[in-house]
Amino acid sequence: MKPARVRQKTCANCAVISDILFRIQTDSSQTWLLFCPACRKLHQDNPFYRYGGTWKANKRH
After folding, report:
1. Cβ proximity of 27 and 61 under 8 Å
2. Is-contact 24 32, C-beta < 8 A?
3. Quick one: DSSP state of residue 10?
4. pLDDT of 35
5. Among 42, 9, 50, which Cα is nearest to 26's?
6. What is the pLDDT at residue 60?
């Protein structure tokens, strides 16, 4: 079994490095951004909110 790769990315809203980020759209531009769990909750009530997947720092392959 291969060892897990560890990667780093920051939240598009607060710039905090997170192990899990959510790919979401928050406005009419339809641009995908990565948000940490806390910032994602801030945008969930937005009428343009669209979930596009989960990014994880620990990837097996």
Report:
1. no
2. yes
3. B
4. 97
5. 50
6. 67
Q: Which amino acid is at 10?
A: T
pLDDT tens for each residue of 19-60? 999 999 999 999 999 999 999 999 999 999 999 999 998 876
Task: Please name the fold of domain 5-59.
Answer: Cysteine Rich Protein (2.10.110)
User: 3-state DSSP call for residue 7?
Assistant: coil
Judge if pTM exceeds 0.85: no
3-class DSSP assignment, residue 48 = coil
The residue ranges of every structural domain in the chain are 5-59
Contacts of 17 (CB under 8 A, 6+ apart): 8, 9, 10
Computed from CA positions of residues 8, 9, 14, 15, in that sequence, does the dihedral angle turn out positive or negative? positive
